[in-house]
C-alpha cells in the first residue's frame, strides 16, 4: 500500500466537507469503512439523552448534540474527525488561527471563544451550546461555571491518553460507530507504516522531539505525550534523554547534545524569535548536533505535531514520519 500523502488526505477532507451539510461534515479517514461510518446522516428523530462517564462523574448530555464548543485541541480534533464542526473553540494563545492541517472549509464556521486555559465564558454563552468538551488540566477550576452554560464533558487531561479521550468525546457526540471505524483505520495505517519502515530499514531509528516554547524554554519531549505515543505506535526509538515516562524535559542550550538523534524534529510554539528558536538554531551547539550536520533535522508544524491531538492529527503525523524517514 503506497504512503498516504498529506496533500491527498487534505483534498479528501475538503471534498467531504463540501459534500456535507452546514451543521455536520464527514471527515474522511483512510479507507471506505471509516468514511461510510463518519458520513452517516444524523437521525431525523430527536435522540434520547446520553450519560457519559467523565472525569467529574456521570454527565447527561443531549443525544447527538448540534451546537458544540471545544476548549482544547484534542476536543477540536475529535469533533472534526467525527464529522461535527463546533460552533466555537478556544485557540492556543500564541497561535494566530486554528490548526491548519484542517482545510479552511472545515474551520471557517468556528467562532473563537478565548484562549485554551482562559476561555471567554461570555462568548461561549452567546453561542448557546448544547455541549462543551474540555479537560480538567485546562478547565477543571471553572467546571461549575461551564456547566451552568451547557452540559460539560471533561476528560482528566490531554495528550498521552488521546485514544481513551477520543472514546469519551465520541460517546458525548453520539458518534461511537464512526469512532470505531476511525480507530480501525488508524490501526491499519500504523501497520502499513511499520511495514514501510521495515522495508526501508528505518525501524531502528531514534527520533528526537524538540519544542521551543515562548516563555517556556527548550523542551525535549518524552514518551508521555501525543507525538511520543505515535512514535511508539510505529515502534520507533527515542534518544536516551527522551526515552522516559515524562511529558517533557526542559534543557538549557548548552546541554542540547542530549537532544541528538538519528532524526531530529523540532517546532516553535509562538514567534521563533521570542521562543528562542531563531537564536538556538543559528548557534554553535545546535549546528554541532549530528542530526543537523547530517541534514536529518527538520522543522515540523507545531499545530500538527504538538497540538494535533487526535486521530486525524495522528494520521498526518504518520504520513510525515514515513516521508521524513525515506520510507
Q: If you had to describe this structure to a student in words, what would you say it looks like?
A:
The protein has 327 residues and is an alpha/beta fold. The chain folds into two domains: 8-175, Nitrogenase molybdenum iron protein domain (Rossmann fold), CATH 3.40.50.1980; 183-324, Nitrogenase molybdenum iron protein domain (Rossmann fold). Helices cover 40% and strands 18% of the residues. It has 16 helices and 13 strands. Helix 8 packs antiparallel against helix 9. The N and C termini lie close together (12 Å). 47% of the residues are buried.
What is the strand tally?
13
Strand content: 15-25%
How many domains comprise the coordinates? 2
Q: Structural class from helices and strands?
A: alpha/beta
What is the helix tally?
Answer: 16
Whole-number radius of gyration?
20 Å
Largest sheet: 6 strands, mixed
CATH homologous superfamily assignment of the largest domain: Nitrogenase molybdenum iron protein domain
What attributes characterize this protein structure?
327 residues; alpha/beta; Rossmann fold; 2 domains; six-stranded mixed beta sheet; five-stranded mixed beta sheet; 13 strands; globular
Q: What is this structure's SSE topology?
A:
Elements: H1 6-19, H2 32-39, E1 50-54, E2 57-61, E3 68-70, H3 73-81, E4 88-91, H4 104-107, E5 111-115, E6 118-119, H5 121-126, E7 131-135, H6 136-139, H7 143-149, E8 152-155, H8 162-172, H9 176-199, E9 207-213, E10 217-221, H10 226-233, E11 248-250, E12 263-269, H11 272-275, H12 277-282, H13 284-287, H14 290-293, E13 297-299, H15 302-305, H16 311-324
Parallel strand pairs: 3-4, 3-7, 4-5, 7-8, 9-12, 12-13
Antiparallel strand pairs: 1-2, 5-6, 9-10, 10-11
